[in-house]
Amino acid sequence: MSEARGGLRELTRTVGAAVALQWRAAPLASVFALLLTLCTGSVAAAGGWLTKALLDELGRGALADSQRALTLAVGAAAVVGGSMAILNVSEYLTGVIRWGVTLEVERRLFTKVAALEGLHHFEDPAFHGRLRLAEEAARDAPQQLIEFVKATLRMLVTVGTLSAVVLLVSPPMALLLLLAGGVALLAQLVRSRWLVELAVALVPTYRWRDFYHALLVDVRAAKESRLFGLGDLLLERMVASLRKAADRELAVTRKGLAVQAALSLLTAAVAAVGSFIVARGALQGRLQLGDVSLFLAAVAGIQGAFNGLLAQVEFAGRSVQTFKHYLDIIALPVHAPEASRPVAPLRHGVELRDVWFRYDAQGPWVLRGVSLFIPAAGSVGLVGVNGAGKSTLVKLLCRLYDAERGQILWDGVDVRELDARALRRRMTATFQDFMTYDFTAAENIGLGDLDRLKDEARIRDVARLAEIDEKLASLPAGYHTLLSRVLEGEDEDMPAGVSLSGGQWQRLALARALMRQDVDLLVLDEPSSGLDAAAEFHIHRTLARHGEGRARLLISHRMSALRSADTLFVLSEGRIIEQGSHDALMTAGGEYARLFTLQASGYQDERVASRAGQKEVA
Ligand SMILES: Nc1ncnc2c1ncn2[C@@H]1O[C@H](COP(=O)(O)OP(=O)(O)OP(=O)(O)O)[C@@H](O)[C@H]1O
């Protein structure tokens, strides 16, 4: 009982939200659509009544009033013609409302997604599942729920008016019809519940299918896929996902077939019983020809109205569930900037104080009591083997996650008390897994500072700093060349897109990070991993110049790039195990010295070393 009440509450909440959404998206069209719905609901009864009156009049033979018969005939024809006109206008209004609602829903959904703070939602498979359902809902659910509301209204008006008509002819029959309709409705609700449960259960299957599909068409995946011959394997897995979905859907459809067959039998039986009652009444002279016609039209009308609603129930049940996911995502809390303290320019430095962090509450600790200080005008280098936690530390600094224990302090203020967006505006960063946007070259750089997205002079300045200006200027449309091999420009004159090399993309990412001028903290996570040796040397000199007077955190596996940092921290399994200047750490002979010597020895050529040795001896 309480479950049914909960279900009803859920239905009311969802349908209410869909109706409110439609009202906001297209108020005028909604009012007209409602009026037309009420009109179409009464068409059957009006048409039936006019036909009955016409037949009764004609049945009077020579006594018939020809003027009245003619008026009734014209009236019945007008009702049919009018209902067709209403249908056409309704279709147009449905289009207007559908577009209004789709735009509104997509805008609201992705405004919310864009406003979500941090990364944890985006690294949660359950969130992606919900988002998929919500997007599905954004496309169809409000419309289907509104169609359901309209079908219910139409059904109520049709059944109400026609039942009144049938009641006049045969009261028991009216009851029978309503009962049969009610049973069919309940059965359909059960069927729709099965379908909803199936849709939710199949979300991961469809997401895997999408994933294999993306791998089959993605240009980057195509390289490995061709080289390792992965095409058949991916295809097989994609088809297997689809087959799984198809098998499960067909199983539910088969289950529903029995229900459907029982419903058809019930409908036919009710119609047969009704016809029998009326035919007998006519034979016994209790009913006239018009009554028979009216009754048969009413039976067909009521069953048609119920069937119309039944068809909507299936979609509506599914929509209630998917739309619920949309409403849940819309209701997710986002950070309220007004609740946070403004961020002052950095004067002393950023401090990590005994920071502990793990990605999942049950997962292993990734950072275990990290403490380090990045002075406002100093540089810090972070060293550590793969998986030590370096990039995780960067994510915490950018407030993409918050520490579980300990604090990150911005001039002594816990960053959790600060407005995250304002904090991010005071810093810039290049990430190890930087983005390559399929935009123009200028936009790829300008995105680093949206206020200067069109500032070509500034864009070229930072491109020069990142030593990519010459290359970009030489592209077919210079900085306005699209950097894409998968999208084409919407503008016909635009030359075909081009792609860059890995190192060139990295320079572009670096230029993007340099776009922001008024920043206090510069975070560079492997900014030169893809650069050739000469370029790396130049870039680091440029970065050192550019970063002067700011707090800098530099991460690199190329240890030579870090040696000039004021302080170096060695991170191992989430702990700082050494710290000091390059010279101090080399003298100490610990992990840093071991890693540095190991890397340096890889660059030693014995012939050069032995020549150097001979010179020393001489
Ligand atoms: N989003 C994530 N969810 C769960 N675990 C993660 C996530 N990102 C990283 N990890 C785990 O956290 C640990 C530290 O990863 P991190 O990327 O910080 O290392 P790193 O020092 O930057 O390594 P590398 O030198 O390879 O870039 C790893 O064991 C990794 O598996």
UniProtKB/TrEMBL annotation:
The keyword Transmembrane applies. The chain crosses the membrane at residues 28-50, 70-89, 162-187, 257-280, 292-311. Residues 31-318 form the ABC transmembrane type-1 domain. This is ABC transporter ATPase. Its main location: membrane. GO terms for molecular function: ABC-type oligopeptide transporter activity; ATP binding; ATP hydrolysis activity. It is a multi-pass membrane protein. Residues 350-598 form the ABC transporter domain. One of its GO terms (cellular component) is plasma membrane. InterPro entries: AAA+_ATPase, ABC1_TM_dom, ABC1_TM_sf, ABC_transporter-like_ATP-bd, ABC_transporter-like_CS, P-loop_NTPase, Type_1_exporter. It is found in: Cell membrane. Keywords: ATP-binding, Membrane, Nucleotide-binding, Transmembrane, Transmembrane helix.
